[in-house]
Write a structure and sequence with these properties.
By secondary structure, the chain is an alpha+beta fold. The chain has six helices and seven strands.
Amino acid sequence: MLRSERMTGLATRSVESSRLLNHTKGTSLAGAASVPLVASMVPGKNSIVGRAKFIKAAAVHAMFFLRRYLEKCRLSKNRKRKSAEMSRRLEEERRDEDMLHPKNRLLPPEFIQQLGEHGLFIDDKPFYGSTHSYPSGYLVFLPEGKIGNRLEKTATIFDDTNGVEARTFMPPIIIWGDGGVWNMQVHRYIPGPGPGDFSEAFDSLDGVFASILSYCFNPADSRFVAAQTGVDD
């Protein structure tokens, strides 16, 4: 077969194949040729407009997560700073030089001696430091073994003058002075107040002393009777 005849046969089969393909797709050669051109005009991932929108959206998401991360870092630093500041304040409050009261809160030696003569024990240092927000006062205990009122099931452990553990079966009494007014308080329940809890104010330590003696040694004292009711319940 001559070369020209072979070329003519190939051309004929190519045309027939194209017709068959167009018939199957239900479109013309002109229509098929126009499809890629139209598709390139639609904003998709492969178009310039689509890529720009995709990059912009990715940048917005990245900025959002970056801001959240930076905010968490800032909050974490603030928490650590506040925690360290609180620890420092608590440590300062327990230092010996910060455990001293202003003069109007110091207890006179005569008052401490009178308490001791009746078998009562008072701490050498305040219950809280002078910089504490709660009134910093002295604790008074009626040690176990001393004759006086007693509440069963309410044992409290404390260190005596020699640093030895001792027990009391009466709620500790806290006393403090503030601007010429002397305060006395028993607070066993949280948040309270509960049975037997009380808070009183006096113009002088004489009133505080009489009130302490009644609470610790008078079985008919109304505050002691109320505390007994709470223990029985």
